[in-house]
Specification:
With 116 residues, the chain is α+β, with helices and mostly antiparallel strands. The chain is 22% helix and 30% strand. The chain has 2 helices and 6 strands; from the N terminus they run βαββαβββ. The strands form 2 sheets. A 4-stranded antiparallel β-sheet has the order 2-3-5-4, covered by helices on one side. It has a two-stranded antiparallel sheet with strand order 1-6.
Length: 116
């Protein structure tokens, strides 16, 4: 029987994407309409790592947001959009759905076996 395989999940990238997804939720909430704290649920079943973030705030599909204009300087660019752009770049699959009064954002990244 073969021993356990090591996978490089690139945890720093996954943490960055999760942080961006959670930050996106709080940035886009209307004043006075705060949702409960987002609840992340993570699991890894090689070769895939999946994180699902759920909250009961107002409906908001972050994947429908336009790409930020990266040709503009930091001072010229409007606030927002960089977090979800980061999520789009780092994750292999992203999916949003509104179900039972809750927002659900699913992030998936394939794990890559380590050499050696």
């Amino acid at each position: 029987m073969a021993g356990p395989r090591s996978f490089s999940a690139r945890p720093v990238l996954a943490v960055l994407a999760l942080t961006a997804a959670l930050g996106c939720r709080t940035t886009h909430e209307p004043p006075g309409k705060a949702a409960s704290s987002p609840v992340p649920d993570a699991g890894a079943e090689p070769p895939v790592c999946e994180v699902v973030v759920t909250d009961d705030g107002p409906a908001f599909d972050p994947l429908g947001a336009p790409e930020p204009d990266m040709s503009l300087g930091v001072e010229e660019r409007p606030v927002g959009g960089l977090g979800i752009a980061l999520v789009r770049k780092l994750m292999d699959e992203t999916e949003y759905e509104r179900r039972d009064g809750k927002n659900r954002l699913r992030l998936r990244r394939r794990l890559v076996p380590m050499e050696g």
